[in-house]
Each structure stands twice: as C-alpha cells, then as structure tokens.
C-alpha cells in the first residue's frame, strides 16, 4: 500500500493522536491492544544493521528495554509485527536506526513492502547510539551530509512516505530548519518531540517555527500530551499529536473523547 500526504490526512481525518515509538515496548502485540484509537501506530525502534543491534544489546545490559532479534530473519519479523499492529486499525509506521545504509538496505526494503510509513530515528540520545553519529546526532550540521545520503537511498528504494523523528532544542530551531531544507525532497513528514530542556511542558514556539517553514509536510507534535486540552493546544501547529508515556500510564480515555470531535480541530498555520 502507498499513501501520499493528502491520503494520510484523509484516512486519519477523525483521529488526531499517534502512538509514539518506545523501544522494547511498542511492537505489533502492544499496538493491537488499542483498536480504533490511534491514527498511526509507530512500532520500534528497530535496528537495521548489526552495529546498531550491538549497541542495543549494550543498552539492554544496563537495564533499558530494546528490541533484540535475529537480523537475518528481519523480513519475517517485521512482516508479523506490522500485521499485528494493523489489528489496531491504524496506519503503521516503523521507527528505525542504522549506521550503514548499505547493510540496512534489504531491511529497509522489507519495511517498504509491508508498512505505511518509514520513520527514520533522528531522536535517540542513548550514548551507545549517539557514539555511532546517528540518532539525534543526525540533526547536527556536520552530519547533514550523512542524513542526506541515508534519505536519498531510502527514497530510491522504497515507495512509502518517509518521516523523520526529531528532537527539538538539540540544535537551535534555525539550524534545524536549514538542515531539513537541505533534505527537503526526501521526506514527507516530521515527528517532532518538542523537548523543552528543564521544563515539563512542550516547546510550542519551536514547533510553531517548524510548522511555519514546513507547511507542505505532515507534522506530528509530541511531548507531554496527557489530555484533550494539551492536545488541542499543540494541534494549532501540527496535524497530529503523539503520545508515549501517557499510554504506559493507561491514561487513554481522553483520546477516545478527542476522536469524537476531532474533525473540528485544525491547525492555524
Ligand atoms: C521507554 C521509552 C522508549 C522510547 N523509545 C523511543 C524509540 O525507540 N524511538 C523514538 O524515536 N523515540 C522513543 N521514545 C521517545 C517517545 O517516542 C517520545 O518522543 C517521548 O517519550 C516524549 O513523548 P511523551 O511525553 O508522550 O512520553 C521513547 C520514550 C520512552 C518513554
């Protein structure tokens, strides 16, 4: 199946909330517990090459959850995960990490065969991943050439929309806008964690700048959304909001309520 941006918006029109990825947690089995709740479910992060799987093994050893699996059987694995995730009746996005695009390419093609969206992780801040100059490191100016190489190859090899999961305030907003402008033809959407250092609420000013500069892209806003009020504030500057920790807390009733009136909520930019 292949969707363009207008199709994605149309298909999700009465659902405004996306399930954000949580490594070691959000797999197909997790998603199928949430029927008719989310517009998009994001599974992963999945590692697509050996070096990132090794990094994940190290992360697990120090007590954090990650998905660990046999990379030689990735096609089989991801097909099953996506099929399970589809039981949520949401579009399925797959959040991925890799260091070497050539080694990851077959696995990228598998995702292209089965998923609705591929989401490149430019967000992870686990040291085992950032030491590889990937995750949030891909947002830096000096790594923009690597990001471009990744995205060019992905676009050449798959036919589904490509989103970037990014973190606000890792680089200043103008730097992020410049860097994203350099790769503009190669992505369809931005999933932005509006991380606000030292604060427990999202940086909506950063999001506003991103919305203003990328009006043609689908934007999923994220960070500390726990209620209809939080979601409505953020939805002024994005097409969807996403949630992670609030789902773990079981705080989801408000999402059903939001979906009922969702057609009346819209972005102002
Ligand atoms: C346990 C956990 C694991 C996460 N793993 C990932 C991941 O694999 N990939 C990713 O892009 N973001 C990951 N995130 C970040 C979330 O997708 C989200 O951006 C962040 O939690 C802020 O949203 P929230 O306030 O709704 O929790 C993770 C978050 C948590 C809590």
Task: Give the gist of this structure.
This is TIM-barrel protein. With 269 residues, the chain is of the alpha/beta class. Helix content is 40%, strand content 16%.
Task: Summarize the SSE layout with pairings.
Layout: H1 5-11, E1 17-19, H2 28-31, E2 40-47, H3 50-61, H4 74-86, E3 91-97, H5 101-114, E4 117-122, H6 127-130, H7 144-157, E5 162-167, H8 173-182, E6 189-193, H9 204-213, E7 218-222, H10 228-234, E8 240-243, H11 245-248, H12 253-260
Parallel strand pairs: 1-2, 1-8, 2-3, 3-4, 4-5, 5-6, 6-7, 7-8
Bound molecules: flavin mononucleotide.
Residues 20-23, 25, 44-45, 95, 121, 123-124, 165, 193, 222-225, 243-246 line the site of flavin mononucleotide.
Describe it.
InterPro entries: Aldolase_TIM (IPR013785), DUS-like_FMN-bd (IPR035587), tRNA_dU_NifR3-rel (IPR005270). Residues 19-248 form the DUS-like FMN-binding domain. This is TIM-barrel protein. The chain is α/β, with parallel strands linked by helices and 269 residues long. It has a single domain, classed as Alpha-Beta Barrel (TIM Barrel), CATH 3.20.20. The chain has helices at residues 5-11, 28-31, 50-61, 74-86, 101-114, 127-130, 144-157, 173-182, 204-213, 228-234, 245-248, 253-260, and strands at residues 17-19, 40-47, 91-97, 117-122, 162-167, 189-193, 218-222, 240-243. The chain has an 8-stranded parallel barrel with strand order 1-2-3-4-5-6-7-8, surrounded by 5 helices. The protein starts with a helix and ends in a 9-residue tail after the last helix. The structure holds flavin mononucleotide (FMN).
